[in-house]
Amino acid sequence: MRIHRSGSITRFLAGWALVLFAGPTSWADAQPPKQGSKPNVLFIAVDDLRPEFGAYGHPEVKSPNLDRLAARGLTFQRAYCQQAVCSPSRTSLLTGARPDTTKVYDLVTHFRKAMPETVTLPQFFKAQGYFVQGLGKIYHPGFNDPPSWSVPWETATPQARPYALAESRALAQKNRQATAPAKAKAKKKAAAKQGSRGPAFESADVPDDAYLDGAVANMAVKTLQSLKAKEEPFFLAVGFAKPHLPFVAPKRYWDLYDPAKIALASNPYRPKGAPEYAVQPGGELRSYANIPTGHVPDELARTLKHGYYAAISFMDAQVGKLLDELDRLSLRDNTIIVLWGDHGWKLGEHDAWCKHSNVELDTHVPLIVVAPGQAEPGKQSKALVEFVDLYPSLAELAGLTPPAHVEGTSFLPVLKSPDRPWKSAAFSQYPRQVEGRSLMGYSMRTDRYRFTRWVERDDPTKVTAVELYDHETDPQENQNIADDPANTALVAKLTKQWQAGWQGTKAELSASRP
């Protein structure tokens, strides 16, 4: 591990230097630390959250608690996931490995199949003597990982339902029953069919814990109270489901917004010059009741966006309960807090909804990190960082050395100096089945450009399409300029950087670090 010699975070780490270097040389052989000798970790996961709320310069979204968390730490303006869909993204973050290593590209594969002996992020902290507990959505549903936890992972109580209104529950049950026979015949869990679920949104005059996230927040508050009494440091992972579909939230959160003031997407069309398969229309949304197959009408689109915003504010309130309890228990000064959203989300941009692509809206993610003793809290950084970087970063913040399999780079230097030069690129990918062919779109985000090459999965030397977007002139990625003869030299330059891949970027960064 590299110890840096200046700044408040250095002093924070130096406080555990004796523990780190006097102990065993193998992380797996470390002795359990005592409470107070290591920082606690509060690890907050959020589903389908775009990096568009107050702390990210979007005051129209009411997010007072996310904003006060950002005021305590560092907000990463340009963080990226490795694949824009739940299980591959969460797997990548929690293992510190990229999708081509985990072999998780879908919602039906567990990472233990390809990496049976891998040590996950929570499992790593558990091996260091931490009490590690998971609540709510951390891994993708159905793919929990028992070795990761000190006690069995928990979801919310049965009283918390996906819908609060009886008519919503009845519609969901009716549609479920109608598609059950076809689902039973399927060999694999497939995407839900058109209209097979309940309503896409709901506003009910109910308490927070009538819905899942409110119940999870209550569990987390009680868990923090019990962890306070333990001798060992803790790693508490709390996963919130909103603003994932369906957009359900108590009515008071809907009332925060005037629907007449909600602006619709200004680019409701596909990227010009891009392959048709680059952006798909959003089949996940169409699996909910009464959503049309084609273009979503403006009135419905505004209601959906209203529901998305209400769901964010509802989730934000639950985060506030955790922060309040952490303060009340006097745990704040010795707890690392990280809040991340597993991927972005489209709200009608490119005439599409949901995630499932390599575009900026899908791969760009929120990431806020609070470290005890952090210099200049409340700052923002434009450094390019990736979700695989979170594993080594948390390890280094806690004075630990991560396992060798981790493919990211600790961004601790950015926490110390938010404006410093950092990675030259971040990498994402997404698979496609196109006319019987298996393709993989590998996307590279540099400071200025998004560059994506679609290749045959069986033969990556066969390129089927190239996308290039200039964020200086086209931040919405509306025009693919890869085929413009004026950009031939630029495409060649970016291709060379793309071919060097994340390994090249990591080596470049390692060579530049002091």
UniProtKB/TrEMBL annotation:
Cofactors that this protein relies on: Ca(2+)
Gene Ontology molecular function, alphabetical: iduronate-2-sulfatase activity; metal ion binding
Signal peptide range in chain numbering: 1-22
Span of domain Sulfatase N-terminal: 39-399
Entry keywords, A to Z: Calcium, Hydrolase, Metal-binding, Signal
Region span, Disordered: 174-202
A cellular component term, taken from the record's GO annotations: cytoplasm
InterPro entries xref list: Alkaline_phosphatase_core_sf (IPR017850), IDS (IPR035874), Sulfatase_CS (IPR024607), Sulfatase_N (IPR000917)
Family per similarity comment: Belongs to the sulfatase family.
PANTHER family: IDURONATE 2-SULFATASE
Name this polypeptide is given: Sulfatase
